[in-house]
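Possible regression after last week's pipeline update?

I re-ran a chain I had predicted before the update to compare outputs. Posting the input and the new output here so someone can diff against the archived version. Not blocking, just want to make sure nothing changed silently.
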Amino acid sequence: MPFKDLSPLLEPQSIAVVGASSNPLKVGGRPLVALRDAGFKGAIVPVNAYREEVQGLPAVPSLSAYEGQIDLAIIAAPAADVVGIVQNGVSAGVKAFVIFTSGFAEMNADGAALQAELTAIAEDSGAIIVGPNCLGVVNTPNGMTATFTSALERSEWGEGAQWEGPFGIVSQSGALASWWLALAVNEGIGISSWITTGNEAGIDVAEGIAAQAQDYQTKVIGVYTEDIRDKDKFAAAARLAQENGKTLIAIKAGQMAAGAGAAKAHTGADSFMDEGEINRWFAELGIIRAESMSAALSMAKIALAYPDLQAFKRLGIITTSGGAGVLVADQATRAGFDLSRFSEGVQPALIDLLPAFVGPRNPLDVTAGVVGNPATFASLCDLLGDRDEHDFYLVATGLLYSVSGAMIDGIKKGLQARGKPAAVIWVGASSALAKSLEDEGIPVFADLPEAIEALAGWAIKD
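New output (post-update):
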């Protein structure tokens, strides 16, 4: 299925803001600030019929009044004016539009009629239309920030914020997408591009997925959708992502009656798929389903560390706390994992290696003494790395900050180097400690449920 080329949207050389405001806190003023803060190098053109200058930039009264080429127009104007503005822009050669304005299909029949006019313009002209009722689009590598989200107020984040990264976001909800962006930056993952589709008069979620599936910087695509209007198109986009080696993690909302009603009021969403249907369909398409934004980012950590990870059943657990082992075992079993015992072939080797008070069972409670002994922990990882006992290892610990070097060394050389993926639950880890492991390609989670939730996307369900 052919998808639109979104380069005029994601890689424009010139951007106009229709309804540009001199107030940097207003919807029409925020994009001007965001574009300059993000270092956008192209032309920025405020469009305001009543001002010759906006925020220090020369303004023009309309899109057609600008003498140069405008690739992308951001529209922050009343709903009644939007169709005329888009028509004027198409006549002037504008290739893409991002429409912030609400008051369309999500509102009433009159709004739906206006939205239908936008759809007709997109179909007849080939113009790219994002929205209406959307929060905009961001592409971090070139500083393209066609949005009014407050998540991009860089002064609030400080110099060390990780804006650019491998996580792409496509969302029908602008506010949720903003929260997701903030979480990704806060987690140190960063984003590649960020596309909010709103009412989808033109570009829908499937088009956004397809664009990110073809983007070299995007490794994992996070999707929030309330309404999948064209299942064949969505499926084609998901398959394109899979073919290009991207992990697709989706939050599908509106599965219950109350949620479906809220979705219709939110973006005009009007299709419904029950829980079982969406789960089966996502599984067929290789889509990992998440229930929350934080869960999706936890899953993204696993996908980024192990892009070739396949669905698996056997989970091995190594812990420094018997209590933690019990909790992890319960949660992992509920998630669908098989906590199979160590085989009779490896049990004698474990007994010889570990202290007498450590039984060769799974979860394997090695106590703080073993993790704090670099030689013993390294030997344990070597032993498990050489045997086909489990498909993935989860190491759960806490406090023992001084042993991080030994743990990193053991996991990297003993498990990962032998094709055994592993992650760490480190309760109470400082951000610096967590970063030291993640810089070495070892996913780290702050608590037990977070880790199990992350792995659950790869669990083989019976």
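Follow-up from reviewer: compared with the archived run. The CA atoms of residues 12 and 245 lie 26 Å apart. Marking as no regression found.
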